Amino acid sequence: MARPCGRGAAIATSVTLSDVAAEAGVSIATASRALAGKPRVSQEMIVRVREVAAKLGYRVNPVARALREGSSRLIGMIVPVIGIPFFARLVDAIEDELNRSGYELLLADSHGFVEEENRRLQVFRDRRVDGIIVIPSDRKASGPVLRSVSAEIPLVEVDRATAKPLADFVGVDNEVGMRLIIEHLRDRQVKTLGYAGGDDASSNGVERFASVQRLAGDNDISVTSAFRSEYSIAAGAAAADALLASGVLPDAIVAGSDQIAVGLIARLREHGFEVPRDTLVTGFDGGELADVFWPTLTTAVQPVSAIAADAVSFLVSRINEGEGAFRRNLLAPELQIGASTTR
Amino acid sequence: MARPCGRGAAIATSVTLSDVAAEAGVSIATASRALAGKPRVSQEMIVRVREVAAKLGYRVNPVARALREGSSRLIGMIVPVIGIPFFARLVDAIEDELNRSGYELLLADSHGFVEEENRRLQVFRDRRVDGIIVIPSDRKASGPVLRSVSAEIPLVEVDRATAKPLADFVGVDNEVGMRLIIEHLRDRQVKTLGYAGGDDASSNGVERFASVQRLAGDNDISVTSAFRSEYSIAAGAAAADALLASGVLPDAIVAGSDQIAVGLIARLREHGFEVPRDTLVTGFDGGELADVFWPTLTTAVQPVSAIAADAVSFLVSRINEGEGAFRRNLLAPELQIGASTTR
DNA sequence: CTGAAAGCGCTTACAG
DNA sequence: CTGAAAGCGCTTACAG
């Protein structure tokens, strides 16, 4: 009853290279070369061995290969919180991209703590991962350990860069994103603006805030308040509280993420203020939430697939070609206009 | 400049067991036993070897150990979509739990496709994972391959069960959850009810709908409409469209997840209908969204940590103790009352 | 209690 | 072009 049905037969228990070699009547060395498509094996040998391997359902044991080659075809990835939708989308995209290149993803969540991040990096080393993709938990505190790991194992930073460059980086172009947003708000006659974004723990927090300040100035918009904390819905609600406590609502509020924007709008609504009626709000990221929340969000849509593709391609080229100057790849987001800035 | 700083020294490149043995002046066999705390090693040997190992920064090579022991201390997990917040929370909780038991998480996303799920299961086998945690993409179609994999590798189903039991299962008690919700609505004088939930692809889709139908009947509430699709915000919006097209709004709408509820409420609002003014809405899952969305959601809060803890404990006991009857562990959710049902 | 040796499954010089 | 052998780093019978 619990016996595997016909289909289960295809999934046999551990057919080994020596089984294939025996069945094909060759040495395991030849079998290995034929399977790997190495030079110096006759064409007929290749055909024969592969047929036998297929018949037996042979699959190379990645553990043995890893021990022998010192390479596991495993890539470790560390995210601060998998629960943030943007990170989840990024992980998803990176996982796809990795599979396409023949790698598997070992995922770890640092919960935003540098110590945990370091512990996980250590485990990745132990596991002989071929490369590491990291969204650093802190642009400064993450530096030292990332640097030393990066000296040994190909590593790429994604979405967030450490303060001092220590590896390749791929992320969104915050400058471009905020320019699209600020110029859009300027066209909407916005004169005063509040900011609700991430703190200095991440490069995005730093860059988005700096861009907003500068671009607002360039466009004769004054930044009347700034609240900076995490990238969560709750932080958005807290930003709304701070704003409400201050007594005046600016013409618009620029949020550092869609999550923040949503928390902000929801809390404002609780207090009787409607968006976009009473103030305009913009987000950052783009995704399902931005499309279905009401009001739909005006936001800078992150090029998630492109970020994932470039991050993996950087990593793979580091793995294969090794050294070289650190690359820094900034990908432009696109402005998506929603109801949150449309009166 | 790119040279690792002092700290990097602690992370040396591959100190091997034979390095430790040499330094301690013993055989690698003894070194291995001392480190593993096996019996038949003198206490002083244990102390000496461990000191040397610590001094040298030795860390066992999990790849070599895996090859030798046929066990990788790796657990594979397959989720349908990491982008659904509830799954993200579950993955997070399970990862923590796994680490606590000394396992690492190999994560794969099936994107809801059985073929992809099967492919990933195959890769897990190849990697010699010690166990598998799966949220099946389809209660029926996922069955055959899961069954044959489960015959070889300890496996536990989590959150969603396949139609025929083929492994241990841990998930929320849908019956209890819907009872809490329906009785709450009954107390709110609800007489007619619409349902917007998941389709029959998941056990939750089946069970939640069945529970609602039966419990509504028991409480003199008539189910006037049912829309069943995915567990996404977009599906919630589509459900709202269907409801609006039908021309009448029931007293309340029971959603199969918070995502659905949020999409539903947002779309209703676009059309001028307010919750809870025009109809009550309930969700299912509980999490940040339920708390910060406006109106806050009345929802059945999933015992995520308990589910994760039990799933891992089931898996670990299967790994260590092996065979035994399939267990089915249903954990009760709690009712959280929000503004979406409070007039 | 300790050590020499075998072996997990693979790949790759090294001979032939 | 093919095979015998070494070796990746570990653990565990098997002797002593």
UniProtKB/TrEMBL annotation, chains A, B:
Coiled-coil spans are: none
Q: Which GO terms describe its molecular function?
A: DNA binding
Q: Tell me, what's a Pfam family for it?
A: Peripla_BP_3
Which keywords does this chain's UniProt record carry? Answer: DNA-binding, Transcription, Transcription regulation
Q: Which InterPro entries match?
A: HTH_LacI (IPR000843), LacI/GalR-like_sensor (IPR046335), Lambda_DNA-bd_dom_sf (IPR010982), Peripla_BP_I (IPR028082)
User: Domain HTH lacI-type: where?
Assistant: 15-69
Q: Which domain of life is it from?
A: Bacteria
SMART domains per record: HTH_LACI
What name does UniProt use for this protein? LacI family DNA-binding transcriptional regulator
